[in-house]
From TrEMBL:
InterPro entries: AAA_dom, Bact_polysacc_biosynth/exp, GNVR, LPS_length_determ_N, P-loop_NTPase, Wzc-like_C. Belongs to the etk/wzc family. It catalyses: L-tyrosyl-[protein] + ATP = O-phospho-L-tyrosyl-[protein] + ADP + H(+). CDD domains: BY-kinase (cd05387). Its main location: membrane. This is non-specific protein-tyrosine kinase. It comes from Myxococcus virescens. The lineage of its organism: Bacteria, Pseudomonadati, Myxococcota, Myxococcia, Myxococcales. Its EC number is 2.7.10.2. GO terms for molecular function: ATP binding; identical protein binding; non-membrane spanning protein tyrosine kinase activity. Residues 386-457 form the Tyrosine-protein kinase G-rich domain.
Amino acid sequence: MDGTGFDPAGGAGGLTPAGLMQYVRAVWRRKWVVLGVAVVVAALTAAHTLRQPKVYSASASLIIDVMAPRFLDGEVKEVMGEERSNYWFNKEYYATQSQIITSRAVAGRVVDKLGLSTDADFLGLAHITDEKARLQAMQGADAVALVQSRIRVIPARDSRVMNIAVDDFDAKRAALLANEVAAAYMAENLALKLRTTEDARDWLEIRLAELESQSKTSELAVYDFKKDADMLSTSLESRMSIVSERINSFNLKLTEVRIQIAAQQARVEAIHRLRKASPEDETWAEALSGASDGPIQDLRRSYTELRMTCAELGERYLAEHPKLLECNRKLSVVREDFLKSLSNVVRSAETSLAESVAQEKNLVRLLDAEKSEAFLVNKKAIEFDRLKRDSDNNQRLYELVARRLKDIELSGMLRTSNVRVLDPARPILVPVKPHVRRNLAVGLVLGLLAGLGVVLLLELLENSVATQADVEERLGLAFLGVMPRLDGSKAPRERDLHVHREPKSTAAECCRAIRTNLLFMSPDNPFKTLVVTSSGPQEGKSTTCINLGVAMAQSGNRVLLLDTDMRRPRLHRAFGVPNELGISSLVVGEGTLDAAVKSTEVPGLFVLPCGPLPPNPAELLHTQAFTDLLKAASERFDRVILDSPPINAVADAAVLATKCDGVVLVLKAAKTNRESARRALRSLADVQARMYGAILNDVDLSAPRYGDSYLGYQGYGQYAEDSKDGVAQS
């Protein structure tokens, strides 16, 4: 790695496991705050609970059926409604009953019966000694609402049992109120039933009178219709039956006549065809069916015989012979009679056809008349059925309403209820309120939660850099290590050289850890020059710089410490070297580097003091002479560490950061403000400084928040102390 990337705006976001552990440690660190808040809240809860008056409760249990018992016949049903087995219906019904029990109507009955509106003890006005003031307060009190507020309905699960519980400051009065509420509910339930029954009866009486009038009107309408339709002697059904019989008879006769007409018409047409085929020959008539009758057959036989006779005589005699003439005369007479008989047969067939056609017409006329009469009867039947139906419906409704009115009158006289008392309330001398144990437990829990809230609030309000998580997650810097808090009773020089004089101490081990982390930040290109700075003064950057130089020198490096804090230099006092010749002198060309560099009691560690304080430190550090000085020092020594001023105070550190390989930021644990540290990082980012990371200084390793993170350092320190005493550690 060549350094560390960082976010000057504030580091990583979100809650990480390290951040969560930080909150856990914060709670543990401020455990006495949590316990103190919990004790205070619990004490306040106990005081409030013990000051509350004792409240007693009594409960009466009722069995509530959906319907009252029915002692009438099966056709009689209550006006209140039918019993259902539907789950939702029952649920809504019992929810409604609960609302009725806690209603003002029920509470008002209890108040009126027990006279609670004038009971000063019940109203909580007994403490008023002035009679007039007490009466005035009683008038302003709402006893009904007070009773309402004390009623609780507790349904028993999967049953029809409901418990009516009443709370009061007197156990006996609580039982009395519970029983009276149950009785008032039963009375209100019965009164509601009676009111509903009365309303239904009034409505049914009005409806019964209307139906009676409608029934009489419809009966008179049926009578008038029968009279107008002449239905007093014969019913429409009988008339319709007679008409139907006539229509059937006419249909049968008409069918016969039409068959006869067809036959006669066929015969007449056949005769006409025969006559048309042989108009001059009488032999056409031989094909007639009527020609075979007796008389016609005799005439035909006579006619045939005479023709034969005349033919024989014509062969014997001349045409003027008397016998022949007489024979022809007789033949002519017989022929004429024969032709007349045939004509009569034809006229008879035609006459029969005409008669049949006339009969068909008459039958059709009669059938149409009967059909008209049938339609008229049907129309009258429809009208009659409508009137009869209206009359029957009105009569049926009248009878139904009359019967229902009788049923309701009987039901109203029957004082049955669907509510029964299962167990009456009895006084219970153990108060139900206040719940001392529960309130104390709740107060303790709330106190603990409030204490945790206070601790978390304090942790959120704390804006200092105190842990490794603050450095890494909130500042976005690599964490190089910690410097433990040194004994404040020691002299400043003793604290500055603590790592050198106590190499096996916890502080020395921490410095070596920081040294190792720094070297591993860039193993391929190790730094030569390093700036040690802080965000503000009094954060221990000079002590950290000295201890880091000692740790570097102990690893075999030649280390030079440069005191570039030209406003408040301190390195020369820490090592006890003169400050007459230093960096400011070398920059202006006075003296040499070899003469200015001073050795220290630490092998391999050298120091270049600040020298006389210049009036313009920042401009002095910007000079090419200082750059050359820094280059010459880096060529002669393995490591050059610069102790710079705080970066938020002056711009010197930013100038030095541009001329060195990297920067280390020193943060004082629980003292350095996060915003101050972020401003320092932004200043370094503006000059594109290369950040190696941050060192957390002045860490109290014995504090709870650091106990788990740096337990190894404490153990090492303990091992060092035991080693001094000659105690072996396993």
